[in-house]
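User: hey, got a sec? need Aminotransferase folded
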Amino acid sequence: MVRVSDQTRTRISRRIGSIAESATLAVDAKAKALKAEGRPVIGFGAGEPDFPTPGYIVEAAVAAAADPVNHRYSPAGGLPDLKAAVVAKTQRDSGYAVEPAQVLVTNGGKQAVYNTFAALLDPGDEVILPTPYWTTYPEAIRLAGGRPVEVFAGADASYLVTVDQLEAARTDRTKVLLFCSPSNPTGAVYPPEQVEAIGRWALEHGIWVVTDEIYEHLLYDGAQAPSMPVVVPELADTCVVLNGVAKTYAMTGWRVGWMVGPKDVIKAATNLQSHATSNVANVSQRAAVAALNGSLDAVEEMRTAFDRRRRTMVEMLNAIDGVRCPVPQGAFYAYPSVEGVLGKEIRGRRPQTSAELAALILDEVEVAVVPGEAFGPSGYLRLSYALGDDNLTEGVGRIQSLLGEAR
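Assistant: Yep! Here you go:
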């Protein structure tokens, strides 16, 4: 006999069932699957440097793998050596003085994002989310019981939200502002004076700031990306800084990120992690120590290559009728508006949304891009220029040819 309560019970929890798959990873997986079939697909989807992890970091990992001390559990919050390296790196790169007790080492940047929102949010708390946003942010907010409140700035505003926009979105339920500069997906960088203005607005209204600085070293054209608690020191007690080794050191697969914040928040997030995953893999942590304590020369070489590719991609995209691409000043993404192309006929199809346009581009010229719907409103595409120069030119050239047929 089936009870009434059993009839209404779902197989998958509503909380988890409501999560959308990572759009960027889905596009990357589809591109790789098509390549495996022998198709000449060029993928602009994944935010992943095409460079190998620098050799000195790999060597440190090999040595760590051979040391039995790394074959055992270690503190859930991170190896003391890595916490010390994060403290030193934060002072060196940002001028922000913190203590090891303010650091939690996480399994990649994504766990740092989730841990932070889980530690800060109660059901119904609102998080102001400048849009376009990285696709994981709203899902992590919802998982933690919060409600993302989108504040959109388009290409005409260089994808930078204003204090007035943030204030218009503020309610008595607002607890957190998510801030990301340089930005994924747009590559936008907030100028120092705007970082300070936003920080002081948050301080005035008692709003926490979660600031994602994982692209801090990928800056171009003289742009600066100061850490918000440095330009607004009074904010330090209500600010969590997120970072990791993935983008700076071409270590996406090593899965090492971290949170820096007030001790009570870090302690709470460490308690959560002790039950969720325990420690980050020790070999990866030892590699991260070598990365943070080592030279930034390899990072500069990568940045130089990204800068060259950035200029090529933006020039080629802006040469397409109906496409408008602001020049990104950071990260390794271009985020063109394709609103001028939507609704036009291209090879017998009339894409009305950027999702439909992305599907058409993949079908017709075998180029994978991520549609704007993954990051907020329709009408945009995200293309990563963290791939080889030849593939970049070939891939954007295919898009130029296809969209040149729009009528």
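Quick note: The mean pLDDT is 94. Let me know if you need anything else on Aminotransferase.
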